Amino acid sequence: MKSLLKKQNGFTLLEIVVALAISAIALPMLLKAFSDGTKRYSLIENRTTAIYLLRLKMAEIEMNGYSALASEEGDFGADSRFKWASEVVNTDIDGLKEVTVIISWQERGQEKSIQLSTYMSDRSMPETQEESNVTNAPPI
């Protein structure tokens, strides 16, 4: 009789069913959270890369100067999914050009892009006498 009343180790069927029910409810939510996190990571990674490439292309144009009023485009290598386009247009001020650079890429079947515009002076214009006096003026 004592052996029949002896406490047995282990889980009851009810405890196992409750644990499985809790797991069945929590597991899909956790999987969705991880899935959304990886999607957001790839979106942020693409945008961050595009911003760095945009700054790189704009710096390249600032260093090398721009060609005549024109639109140019290209990519960042054969295995890169990012493409660039630049456009130089006149402004109302002589010697001042508006330079726009656009970086585009494919993301989940849609084309995404980011752009930056700035103004640059025309390096081929000769300096006026007033400008050279200002640049050569002694410090105050």
What does this protein structure show overall?
The chain is of the alpha+beta class and 140 residues long. The chain has a domain at 41-125: Pantoate--beta-alanine Ligase, Chain: A,domain 2 (2-Layer Sandwich), CATH 3.30.1300.30. It has helices spanning 2-5, 13-64, 129-135, and strands spanning 71-75, 83-90, 96-107, 110-121. Strand 1 (71-75) and strand 2 (83-90) form a beta hairpin. It is rod-shaped. The mean pLDDT is 83.
Strand content of the residues, in percent?
Answer: 25-35%
- Describe the largest sheet: 4 strands, antiparallel
Total strands: the figure is 4
| Distance from first to last alpha carbon | 108 Å
CATH topology of one domain: Pantoate--beta-alanine Ligase, Chain: A,domain 2
Structure class: alpha+beta
Count of DSSP H/I helices: 3
Write the layout of secondary structure elements.
Elements: H1 2-5, H2 13-64, E1 71-75, E2 83-90, E3 96-107, E4 110-121, H3 129-135
Antiparallel strand pairs: 1-2, 2-3, 3-4
What key attributes describe this structure?
3 helices, 26% strand, 140 residues, alpha+beta, four-stranded antiparallel β-sheet, 45% helix, 4 strands, single chain
Question: Can I get a quick summary?
Answer:
This protein is 45% helix and 26% strand. The protein is α+β, with helices and mostly antiparallel strands.
